[in-house]
Amino acid sequence: MKTYLSLLVLCCHTLIYGQLPELHATVDMPFDFGTEVQQKWKQREVLLDAIEKGTKNWDNLSVAEQSLFEKYDETYSSMWATEGDGCSWYCGAGAYEVQTSSALKASSKITYATQNLTDFSYQTAWVEGVDGDGIGEYIDVRFKAEHPRVTTIRIANGYVKSKKAWKNNSRVKSLKMYVNQVPYALLHLKDVYALQSFTLPAPLGHADRSDFEKLKEKGDWSIRFEILSVYKGLKYEDTVISELFFDGLDVHCLSGGTLITMEDATVKTIESLKTGDCIRSYNMETQQYEASEVLEIATATHEHLIDIVFSNQKRIRCTSDHPFLSVSNTWSSYTPLKTQQEYHLSKVVPLTEGSSLLTEEGPLQINRILPVVTPEITYTIVRLKKNHTFLANGVITRIENPKSHKHIMNPSQETTE
């Protein structure tokens, strides 16, 4: 009964009032793939090559060179990449199936196929394949039951590989969004040359993730995006979307066996932790430890983990963007720019060999950081009743994404749970 509660409420609202909730896009990042930017990326490639050959190193970069990497993140393979090679939601999210109602036939060497929507490249695009503006054409995305939950939809609207191509082709003005074939919301995009996003009112996906094997037995779920209206192109009627991708919960995790400090100073492995348990949390403002109740736990199969080995030979295995509190009371991670983005933190410093982290027993230095090549089932605390921190193997770390919880309803209200 609880499974489709929010969808039933939404459907009743639609039947009674004759309208769907309306979501308006926010602008994430303006696009610029012009000549000057291309030159900057070439400079960055030359600099990376010099670092790889040993003629340069990260410690002696000039201010201008540091600024180059701050603007053009070193984890990105090219200026067309939507995601860097560092850890992201997609490291743990896994694959999902995408189908479209139509696609324009290839022209010479340029394709407009469905797969261009999810190739993580701004250089390619999906173009609907019917006469006219493509009103009524749609994109279907199907997720496995165990897929991490979605909280954000990101769209590169139009043919963004150049400003000229973007103006010449039609762009989506509004989409009708369905969840499991039931109308969910109207999505309104701006007519801007920029990456846009929608933050959903509640996470989509299965919330009860405490038993990963049982989670896999739950039903698959889907999202459909149907074109309702468009911004007209100057030259072509074809409506274009260059990229469609997501962000969400359940992937910034710790490996099984990680010990979580409880309120009474005993420890539990993170995989045996349950909602309602009281753990020890660190209050960043008072710098005191306090008891806090666990409200939500998540699990996922994750790739690209790292092993952090400390001077006392203790270890933590985690995703590379997982933040830990440094001795300077600043958050740190192996991929700081990604952590800053994913956790909505104003500052994250690099976690390197020689860094010192804050623990219950004082500072603890990192001796080595090693890559983990095999995928593992991982776990994380998503919500606490108080504070945003907990102790993992004695080290102060952070719950998954505290600032996003202002958008998150009670799990019983979530769409597929």
From TrEMBL:
PROSITE patterns reported for this sequence: INTEIN_N_TER
Ranges of residues in domain NAD glycohydrolase translocation F5/8 type C: 89-247
Top-level taxon: Bacteria
InterPro entries in the cross-refs: Ataxin_AXH_dom, Hint_dom_sf, Intein_N, NADase_transloc
Protein name, per record: Hint domain-containing protein
AXH domain boundaries: 257-346
